[in-house]
Amino acid sequence: xxxxxxxxxxxxxxxxxxxxxxxxxxxxxxxxxxxxxxxxxxxxxxxxxxxxxxxxxxxxxxxxxxxxxxxxxxxxxxxxxxxxxxxxxxxxxxxxxxxxxxxxxxxxxxxxxxxxxxxxxxxxxxxxxxxxxxxxxxxxxxxxxxxxxxxxxxxxxxxxxxxxxxxxxxxxxxxxxxxxxxxxxxxxxxxxxxxxxxxxxxxxxxxxxxxxxxxxxxxxxxxxxxxxxxxxxxxxxxxxxxxxxxxxxxxxxxxxxxxxxxxxxxxxxxxxxxxxxxxxxxxxxxxxxxxxxxxxxxxxxxxxxxxxxxxxxxxxxxxxxxxxxxxxxxxxxxxxxxxxxxxxxxxxxxxxxxxxxxxxxxxxxxxxxxxxxxxxx
Length: 377
Prior knowledge:
Elements: E1 20-26, H1 33-51, E2 59-65, H2 74-87, E3 92-94, H3 99-112, E4 116-118, E5 130-132, H4 138-151, E6 156-162, H5 165-181, E7 184-191, H6 197-208, E8 214-218, H7 223-233, E9 238-241, E10 261-265, H8 272-285, H9 292-309, H10 316-323, E11 329-330, E12 339-340, E13 350-351, E14 356-361, E15 364-370, H11 373-376
Parallel strand pairs: 1-2, 1-3, 3-4, 4-5, 6-7, 6-8, 8-9, 9-10
Antiparallel strand pairs: 10-14, 11-12, 12-13, 14-15
Helix pairs in contact: 1-9, 2-3, 4-5, 6-7, 9-10
């Protein structure tokens, strides 16, 4: 009998509640363990909110998983997004996250009027219905690493970057950040998002000829291929990255290829919200992990649950209004003290040291600083 203590009483005037429907659109790496963890962490957060009584019903997930731009089919992502928001009677959708796919779907954000929760880091898009809990922010990541380079005494940096929407946005910020810091751009080189080894060797050789103090790479190419090209060419400058450092986790490239590199990541073992989430995740799913995509997935799930708890009426517009009331929600991503807040004119959720600098030293992936260290002296 005790198990029925919290069961709602029968009420023929108000029938049993039905689950809320939410879309889940994963537009890259969906078969890899990090993205499986991302999805499961989001679901865990919503389950916890239901068990705790913060929301009065479970969520039914309507999932679409496929590969989008720049390498695959952005139009397939657009088709999947439109199916979710126009045909599936969902209250919100998690995704897409790649900048090409977000741009393709942007005109439908307002037209569909369905909240979109995305981990995309681009600043080039805005919509009353787009709520970003971003995996980095291109403009912040660049300045963070340029500030690190300046503090380390480096004076010139060469840049190799993808010739993609993401690469263009990063590159524009790189020029501004280097000027602000008083550092010299030794040279820049654009590569394809899926380069050949010959192309990588050519890029590295060209940047080696600039005699730069450091090399920064901004690419979705497999990192160990880059390291192999540098080894073949015989160049070993100071090595910098942005959020492509997230591939240092074992389920992607692993830490070995990142030995000596400094980059941007978004998890910090000292963050108590992250530590509790890792334990809860293991209890729920029977596997232990702990990486950026798990943290962001959990944060997006908690944000969604908090918005659902304040939704009135139970419509996409009601949820949009509920999400605008999410304030000071402790985040699993970032350094301790990172929070998530939205408002009517605030659509990027993370506040505080939501990015951290990490490096691999003697095979150990470790935190070496936060996003705002340059402000602390």
